[in-house]
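Students often ask why we bother encoding 3D structure as a string. The short answer is that it lets us treat folding as translation between two languages. Here is a chain of 247 residues written in the first language.
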Amino acid sequence: MGAHCVRAAPRHTSEDQLQLHMPQPVTLNIYNVGNSDQVNILNRMLRPLGAGAFHCAVEVFGAEWSYGDYDEGSGVFSCQPRVCEGHRYCESVKMGKTTLKEGDFAKIMKLMEMRWLGKEYDILRKNCCHFCDEVLSQLNVACMPAWVTNLATAAAALQSAGERMEKKRRSLGSALPTLVADTLCCGCEVQSGKAQQVEIISASPTRRTSTEAAAARMDGFGAGSTPAPRPGAFAEIPDAKGFKCEH
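And here it is in the second language, the structure alphabet:
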């Protein structure tokens, strides 16, 4: 069957049900974020690289739908196509045609209004691009172009990596004092938070050399002192009287 073929309508159907529903075109309107010239210049530089800072909205059934940051209530809003206040229109991308009826689409948007609250808006993780991606999915047309979301996706990935590293750093910082307290350098495990008894073992005596022994014997004498003689040392020397010197 060809792409334009439709199923045959049941025989016993009213005339209204036999009317064919014409598919409606869906367009993604893309804006430069804000109205500053700096953002416009930045996007002109990033666009050839497949990135940029963009606001986007889905145009269908004569209106444009998007999502923004609001303090209260839903963040979903609609306006006339390509004239969204606060942003500068850039370009439009045709996303195909939807077979969804306008009444069914209105019901879907009512449900999305309750889920997409303005206070939950996040510039990296829950923004207008994420909203438009879901709307396009509900309309069963093409997906969001990657170049529209690349910058926000990369920034969100970097932020998530930084948060993981910070979480690991905090976890290590809180665990380190416990590890130090629970384990001594010698490998003996102790209970943290309790006083410990440590037995001090003196070094075993070692044999001293003759030089060290002689030095130790000299410790009791001051500088220039004469060592005390051994008992009986003079008995070994003959009496000076009667000693005859022979020439």
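Translate back mentally: The mean pLDDT is 76. Keep this in mind for the problem set.
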